[in-house]
Design a protein that fits this description.
Elements lengths: L11 E5 L3 H12 L2 H4 L2 E5 L2 H10 L4 E5 L7 H9 L9 E5 L5 H9 L2 E6 L4 H85 L5 H33 L7 E4 H14 L7 E6 L3 E4 L1 H17 L6 E9 L2 E8 L6 H4 L23 H11 L3 E5 L7 E8 L8 H5 L8 E5 L3 H12 L4 E5 L2 H11 L3 E5 L7 H10 L7 E6 L4 H10 L3 E4 L4 H16 L1
Parallel strand pairs: 1-2, 1-3, 3-4, 4-5, 7-9, 13-14, 13-15, 15-16, 16-17
Antiparallel strand pairs: 6-8, 9-10, 10-12, 11-12
Helix pairs in contact: 3-4, 6-7, 8-9, 9-11, 14-15
Length: 542
């Protein structure tokens, strides 16, 4: 078999003849026109070999000998044209015998396009070859163009997908930027309101001729607005913990009814509920929970109901046991939730329509925190509303547990203790002065230090009962102070309370490892500080 080394883009001609001499002569004749007509020659000596080549290649034309032993030309042609991929290949029969009409008809039935008799007239064979090779070349060009178009289409499709993905990314980035801008604008508004009120009250207290009633009112404003600032900071910190998965719980059996009542009492004392009618129906149900986090859940749910219920509206809080669950629901007669918003109401920064003055405030993260905190307690929270103007209902379901014996440390929080010597190690002068005045007013003897080194010196000289130590101080930080005091025999028994703005679980753990007895997060309310002092002194007395 003679095979020229040509590319797949060159038309191929298959020559089939069992006689070696005839095959060589025919291939030699074709070779004279190979460069001119640009085609490749493949030759074989049997019908079986021809079928193998047809499986491997496409051919412009097949020159097929009729009279071959084994599989003759007619049978070979029938086999070639029975296959879909090769059914359209033109076949020219070659024969040394004058074909009668029956043989011609049989050849045409098998797909032959022509008969050539030997000896072959070269000019006729060249003319026929040029036609079929030319057609094959056009088909190859069309296939190549189609392939190029297909590749280009794939490239354009890929580019289009990239563009669509980029557009989606930009839309998402724009939405995030918009959300961030709206959040920052909201945060600025929420911070300026209480700061403005605190500043105004402080100016009022500094004026001459301020009466007792005005002074009391100004102090109440400062206290109330400081609480608002604390809530904003707490929400921001909790948002960060939610986003980074760093919320941790200190769980123990608690009566959820007591927490609900405590939260409602706090909101009532703050004047938050005075324009609404509250309907409360709670049963005692114990859950395994972090009481502080549960307070946050309940406060956020009730606060949300207050925000979106106009003055004169009704808020209903219900708590009951259902099978193995504690079911808490907070319902309101407020503005309701649209069906579009209902599916996103627990997402961060999502808020319903609010008036421009935003009298109740908020950062739009309360419900998102509720969902996260409830999930951490192995519970669920759902929202329901019949639409705008038809109120809303939030339902929390938490696993119920059995009541357990009271914790003696919890009972100790309300124990009144005699005055003690307390050392305050704090680098912020105003914070140090305020804490000194508060604790002095309760009869305690107060020692102060402005940095860690001075605090250690005072502690060694005076050996106080308790040291309140700030963590973030220049020079020696609070952890280093605690380690130094614990390592010194004369000061190792001092009760140490960490006072810090760092409130993550790892911060508390680090404080305990450094030697602190308790860890309080600033700002610390008077009640929390006194309970901490009482608990430390109760443990010491025990």
């Amino acid at each position: 078999m003679l095979k020229q080394d040509c590319s797949d883009n060159v038309p191929k001609v298959l020559v089939v003849n069992d006689d070696p001499g005839s095959l060589i002569g025919l291939v030699g004749l074709l070779s004279q026109w190979q460069e001119e007509l640009a085609f490749e020659i493949i030759s074989v000596r049997s019908g079986e070999e021809a079928l193998k080549q047809v499986l491997l290649h496409d051919f412009a034309v097949i020159l097929l000998d009729v009279n071959m032993p084994g599989m003759n030309g007619f049978e070979t042609a029938e086999a070639i044209h029975s296959r879909d991929a090769s059914a359209s290949i033109p076949i020219i029969f070659l024969t040394a015998y004058l074909a009668d009409e029956i043989n011609r008809l049989r050849g045409y039935e098998q797909g032959a396009v022509d008969y050539l008799f030997t000896p072959i007239i070269p000019q006729i064979l060249k003319a026929k070859l040029s036609v079929f090779v030319g057609l094959a070349r056009k088909n190859i060009e069309l296939k190549n163009q189609a392939s190029i178009l297909d590749r280009r289409t794939q490239e354009l499709t890929a580019i289009n997908l990239l563009l669509e993905a980029e557009i989606d990314k930009r839309k998402l980035a724009e939405q995030k930027n918009k959300t961030t801008e709206e959040f920052l604008a909201m945060l600025g508004h929420e911070l300026r309101n209480p700061l403005s009120a605190i500043n105004g009250a402080a100016i009022l207290l500094s004026l001459d001729g301020v009466g007792p009633q005005q002074s009391v009112a100004a102090k109440e404003i400062i206290h109330r607005q400081s609480g608002q600032l604390t809530r904003i900071v707490d929400d921001l910190l909790d948002l960060s913990r939610v986003m980074f998965g760093k919320i941790s719980l200190t769980r123990h059996p608690v009566d959820l009814a007591e927490i609900v009542c405590s939260c409602l009492e706090t909101l009532t004392m703050a004047g938050r509920t005075q324009q609404h009618a509250l309907k409360v129906n709670v049963d005692s149900v114990y859950i395994d929970a972090d009481a502080t986090r549960m307070e946050q859940v309940i406060t956020n749910l009730v606060d949300n109901a207050l925000k979106y219920t106009p003055a004169g509206g009704e808020i209903e809080i219900e708590l009951k046991a259902s099978d193995n669950e504690a079911v808490l629901s907070v319902s309101d007669s407020g503005i309701g939730i649209s069906s579009e918003l209902l599916s996103r109401v627990f997402d961060i920064f999502i808020q319903g329509e609010r008036p421009l003055d935003r009298p109740q405030g908020g950062l739009g993260i309360g419900l998102s925190l509720v969902r996260q905190l409830v999930a951490l307690h192995d519970g669920s929270v759902t929202a329901a509303s019949h639409g705008k103007g038809k109120g809303s209902r939030f339902t929390v379901r938490l696993p119920k547990v059995e009541k357990q014996a009271d914790d003696p440390l919890k009972a100790s929080q309300n124990v009144t203790v005699a005055p003690h010597t307390i050392l305050i190690i704090e680098d912020n002068e105003d914070a140090r002065a305020i804490m000194t005045m508060m604790l002095s007013s309760l009869g305690h003897r107060i020692l102060t230090a402005a940095d860690g080194e001075q605090g250690i010196e005072v502690a060694k000289a005076e050996v106080p009962d308790i040291a309140l130590v700030d963590i973030g101080m220049p020079g020696l930080n609070g952890y280093e102070v605690a380690q130094a005091l614990r390592a010194t025999p004369g000061t190792s028994a001092i009760k140490l309370i960490a006072m810090t703005g760092y409130g993550l679980a790892e911060d508390k753990s680090r404080a305990m490892q450094a030697g602190f007895d308790m860890h309080l997060v600033k700002p610390v309310s008077m009640d929390v500080l006194l309970n901490a002092l009482n608990q430390c002194l109760f443990i010491a007395a025990a």
